[in-house]
Design goal:
It is elongated, with a radius of gyration of 32 Å. By secondary structure, it is mainly alpha-helical. It has 2 domains: 89 residues, 3-Layer(aba) Sandwich (D-Maltodextrin-Binding Protein, domain 2); 222 residues, no CATH class. The chain has a 4-stranded mixed β-sheet, with helices on both faces. The longest helix has 35 residues. Helix content is 69%, strand content 5%. Strand 3 and strand 4 form a beta hairpin.
Length: 401
């Protein structure tokens, strides 16, 4: 039995939370792991920007014997939005050798006529490159034909009324779609790692206090529910600071390297990740604390936290399901069933498919579930944390007296 509580609820929770926060941030491993993670984030972004984004993937076209043909190819590529790198080569034979060596994608040689040319390639001409070459030859032939009647291309353009196509899309493409997908994937992985890591930290801390009998002293002045929430909030604050650090570093590195250009999207996804991390972490941290109270040795923690890991991996799998099938009706239902909203809602917000009432409703459901879960977790914690020895079964800890 515990002694009577002598500290007010808010002070008790604050004292425990402050203690847990200080214990975590004063660990040398905390600073080392965060330094490594920051280096991984920045290094990964820089490496992807340099090596993974394709670099300058413009096709290289060598032109032999006709400077006007080279100019026509350059102009056609710019007009079509398919720029090519044009190089002058001394002869058709030199161009053929450059293609064989892999220095050129296409070697283009005028065949002497106003509209013809020979393209030497390794195997085939890519469709985009073919469109540029065809347009260049058409422009060249048009200029030659105009010359025979005494007109220049500029005079023809001035006499031709402007033509334009107005596109009325029923389902306009989202220019931020690529960034939303990339950010969603990053958020999913980081949130999973944070919830698992800090949930286990809560469980290990409970077991450590139980095995050292420190908890007996704490419970003489603090109610079990207050001790439980203080531990959850203190360790959770460390996780939130870490997530904030990773997000600021990741967004900053993404903008600096050009991988992120729309800051509103990045900040929106990041803000949603922070909010839902708090709810998801609190949900599982309460369960991890209860699971830790059931055992007396840290090596036995995996036994009682196994079901929690299975639930977390189920959430992880469902989240990847959303990335592949965002319109699934089943996922829409799961977004209302705790704890699945903790990982699904940030993805839905990033995807743009979550309405304001959906976000607010799911958050309210998570809060209600969290309150009920906290009461049950405190009951398990109170009944188990002072029992040293054999593992306490979940059913026994939850059974009403």
């Amino acid at each position: 039995m515990t002694g009577s509580a002598t500290l007010p609820a808010h002070r008790a929770v604050a004292l425990v939370a402050r203690r847990e926060f200080r214990v975590q941030v004063h660990k040398r491993s905390f600073w080392i792991s965060n330094a490594i993670m920051v280096l991984v984030i920045v290094g990964g972004m820089v490496a992807y920007a340099v090596f993974g984004s394709g670099g300058d993937d413009r096709p290289t076209v060598g032109v032999a014997g006709d400077a006007s043909l080279a100019a026509a190819v350059t102009t056609a590529g710019e007009r079509l939005g398919l720029p090519v790198e044009v190089r002058e080569v001394p002869s058709a034979a030199a161009g053929r050798d450059a293609v064989a060596a892999g220095d050129l994608d296409v070697a283009l040689t005028a065949d002497g006529g106003p509209a013809g040319a020979v393209a030497v390639v390794d195997s085939d001409v890519p469709s985009a490159t073919r469109a540029v070459l065809d347009a260049a030859l058409a422009d060249r032939a048009t200029a030659a034909a105009l010359g025979t009647v005494g007109l220049t291309p500029a005079e023809l353009a001035a006499a031709t009324p402007p033509a334009g196509l107005t596109v009325d899309a029923l389902d306009p493409a989202d220019p931020e779609a690529g960034q939303r997908t990339a950010l969603s994937f990053a958020v999913l992985i980081v949130m999973f790692m944070q919830i698992v890591g800090f949930g286990l930290t809560v469980a290990m801390g409970v077991v450590e206090e139980k095995s050292s009998r420190v908890v007996e002293l704490l419970l003489s002045t603090i109610r079990p529910l207050h001790l439980l929430w203080g531990k959850v909030l203190g360790i959770g604050a460390v996780g939130l600071v870490q997530l904030l650090l990773y997000g600021v570093v990741g967004i900053g590195a993404g903008i600096a390297t050009g991988l992120l250009t729309i800051t509103g999207t990045a900040l929106g996804v990041f803000g949603a990740a922070l909010g839902w991390f708090v709810l998801g972490y609190a949900f599982f941290a309460v369960l991890y604390a209860a699971a830790g109270s059931l055992v007396s040795r840290q090596e036995d923690v995996n036994t009682t936290t196994g079901p929690l890991m299975m639930l977390l991996f189920a959430m992880y799998g469902v989240s990847f399901w959303f990335l592949g099938s965002p319109d699934s009706a089943v996922l829409g239902v799961l977004s209302w069933i705790p704890p699945f909203p903790a990982m699904l809602m940030p993805l839905m917000i990033a995807d743009g498919s979550a309405t304001a009432w959906h976000v607010a409703g799911s958050a309210l459901v998570m809060l209600v579930a969290l309150v009920l879960l906290a009461k049950a977790g405190a009951r398990v914690y109170e009944r188990s944390v002072l029992r040293i020895g054999a593992t306490v079964p979940w059913r026994e800890a939850l059974r009403s007296r």
